[in-house]
Amino acid sequence: MSVVAVFNQKGGVGKTTTTFNLAAALARAGRKPVAIDLDPQGHLSLAMGVKSVPGSQSIFSYFESGTPLERLVREVPPGIRLIPASLDLSKIDALYGADQGITRRLQGGLAEAGWGGAMPVIMDCSPMLGVLTLNALMAAERVLIPLSADFLSLQGVHRINTALDVLERKTGKQFLRRIVVSRYDARRKLSFQIYRELQETYPGIVCETRIHESVALAESPMHGRDIFAFAPASQGATDFRLLVRELDAVGFFTG
Ligand SMILES: Nc1ncnc2c1ncn2[C@@H]1O[C@H](COP(=O)(O)OP(=O)(O)OP(=O)(O)O)[C@@H](O)[C@H]1O
Ligand SMILES: [Mg+2]
Questions:
Q1: Does 117 score more than 80 pLDDT?
Q2: Ligand 1 in contact with 12 (CB < 6 A)?
Q3: In a domain, 255, yes or no
Q4: Closest ligand (CA of 18)
């Protein structure tokens, strides 16, 4: 099922930027993606121009009162169906962390909505491995790990891969997983070294496409626009076009 979690326990590595622009690229190709903002910070919602969402209209309402996911969707340009976050999400661990079966709630909701086949679902995770991120990983069949091209990021990949291995053993499913290097600076030797080291350590799962450090990518969310609307001729737009093509070729957004 084309249910994708964009996940990395390290903060500020490009998870939200990646989720936004992948969803935008899919929407522009007429693929009707559903983007779910699972981060209490609500950055994905903000980047998509959606502010100050009450809990009753955010993904929180699904966890709190079982509101069907279809009722929480709103359409944002360029044709992305977004389920936004709200501040209440920060209470989820305290409220439901001890509930039995809590980590499978979202999986159930997605199945009921019938999404994930021809309608790819992309979930933006927070950097915390709490109830929300676990829900995303339990529901996901694909995991995309954005990784900024710096030394500390590299150290975290092993931990993420191990966590995914554990989940695979527990659930009996196999993630289709990919690492994408973001904030790549072609002028810095370190960027290339990190990319090569990743390829050697994790053969077959590192995307060829790298997302370059780009002013347009940093600025576009401030204007509530995806990179294709904000700067269609930029390196950032080219990178995300290539990334969608590469991930699509391995079935990330189909089936
Ligand atoms: N390729 C890039 N070029 C320039 N700036 C970028 C790039 N990717 C991300 N940024 C900027 O870096 C910051 C962090 O990116 P982003 O919010 O996507 O990371 P994140 O992993 O979602 O962070 P968090 O862990 O807080 O959710 C943002 O200000 C974003 O605009
Ligand atoms: Mg984020």
A1: no
A2: yes
A3: no
A4: 1
Q: Residue of the nearest CA to atom 25 in ligand 1?
A: 11
Residue 254 lies in a domain: no
Whether the pTM exceeds 0.85: the reply is yes
Instruction: Decide: 213 in ligand 1 pocket, CB within 6 A.
Output: yes
Task: Please state, for a pLDDT cut of 70, what percent of the chain lies above it.
Answer: 100
Burial of 85 from C-beta contacts in 10 A (0-12 / 13-18 / 19+): buried
Is residue 84 in a domain? yes
Q: Ligand 1: does its nearest atom lie under 6 Å from the Cβ of 239?
A: no
pLDDT tens column, 136-145: 999 999 999 9
As a three-state string, the secondary structure of 148-185 is ECCHHHHHHHHHHHHHHHHHHHHHCCCCEEEEEEECEC
What CATH number corresponds to the domain at position 83?
3.40.50.300
**Domain count for the chain:** 1
